Amino acid sequence: MSSEHSAYVPNELLGRLVGFHLFSFQFVMDYVQLRFDGPTADMPVLNCDVLPVVETKTGLIAPGQLGYADALRAFIPSNVVATVEQTGRGLRIEFDEAAIVLHPDIEDVLPGPEIALLDGFEDGHWMCWRPGEVSFEDVV
Questions:
Q1: pLDDT tens, 36-59?
Q2: Which domain holds residue 35?
Q3: Strand locations in the chain (E)
Q4: Residue 36: which residues within 8 A CB-CB, separation 6 or more?
Q5: What is the pTM of this model?
Q6: Does residue 136 lie in a domain region?
Q7: Is residue 28 part of a domain?
Q8: How far is residue 87's CA from residue 85's CA, in Å, rounded to a whole number?
Q9: Considering the domain boundaries, does residue 6 fall inside one?
Q10: What is the C-alpha to C-alpha distance for residues 14 and 25, in angstroms, rounded to an integer?
């Protein structure tokens, strides 16, 4: 959660991505890393152990669908304009024209214990999301 012992506030850490832009994504074996760059020394990385869905005006593009990697690449170098972290919705990173969404079914999480990990902040704060825990209480 963080290098300090404090109460976690949903969307507080994820919300720090607003104003940053996605500068790269990388498929690593069975997960994807989304790397952000922005107006501070922070270099946030969102490791998605469950592959996110791309939501566009014309519909959803899921992992494995034709055009999935192209849909992720289209976010480069778009700025993050909003974020949502909420039980029932999971994680949502919004850009001008589309969004990256992480709200898996429990079957999509198995066999791994984690959904995603956000770190790379200069102050050492980080968050790991798991099924049944903060913002994913409904994924059980």
A1: 999 999 999 999 999 999 999 999
A2: 14-129
A3: 21-28, 31-37, 45-48, 53-56, 59-61, 82-86, 90-94, 98-102, 116-119, 127-129
A4: 17, 20, 21, 22, 23, 43, 44, 45, 46, 80, 120
A5: 0.92
A6: no
A7: yes
A8: 7
A9: no
A10: 17
Measured torsion, CA atoms of residues 91, 24, 115, 57, in degrees rounded to the nearest 10: 40
**Residue 139 amino acid letter:** V
53 beta partners: 101
Q: What is the pLDDT of residues 59-70, one digit of tens each?
A: 999 999 999 999
Whole-angstrom Cα distance, residue 36 to residue 20? 6
- Which two tokens mark 7? 């109460």
Structure tokens at 117: 């990990």
Structure tokens at 116: 């995603």
> What does R_g of the chain's alpha carbons equal in angstroms?
14
